Model the fold of this input.
Amino acid sequence: MKLIRELWTSLIESLVGLGSVVRFLLRLLTESPRALLRFDLIAQQIFNSGALSLVIIMLSGLFVGMVLGLQGFQLLQRFGSEEALGTAAAIGLVKELGPVVTALLFAGRAGTALASELGLMRATDQLSAMEMMAVDPIRRVVVPRFLGGVIAMPLLAAIFSLIGLFGAQLVGVQIMGVDSGSFWSQMRSSVSLSDVNEGIVKSCIFGIMCSLIAVYEGYYATPTAEGVGRATTRTVVTLFFDYLITAAFL
Done:
């Protein structure tokens, strides 16, 4: 009975937490059209979330593509289909690895930065001071950061996939000797628009989830150093479970 009671309590707490996140998302979406009028704030957050993450995204994309090219070549060589390496690399990066790995890297770098920044603002009473001055902190602080992350995530995923394709081509063509014409021609003929659209949809959904979790955990962080640390950690941990749910629906 005690186990059932604890499971029931955990279920209720999870549902309450989910409802709180959904209400927070609806409020962000309501304030978003008004926040777009001050695009300078959003552009600054796009720079913070996107441009400052480019180095880790590009390096990771290059090495993931190189590993994918090496492993893919060894696998396809067993079936005499080395020329299909471009197709395998493109589909793997565009549909799956690009959005997923970018989302994890985005959460680890930009997401934790957003959560810790908002958490410190909560801990130092900056958000409370805004409310006392009749300034809505969600409209002025949270929404630009949320929209900046949502816009930056698909762009980073596209860059990751492009750099990954270059890495796969570098290993497959330059090192393993796959014909360059076959590599690119089979890729162009096999990768369809629906594959690209699937990757775009996934990257957009992951961008919304990463940014939402980051700003939610930071905004409602306990106003202590320990609370800020927990909010930063939950940004990454929660993303993993949310990704599994989203992948199941897709």
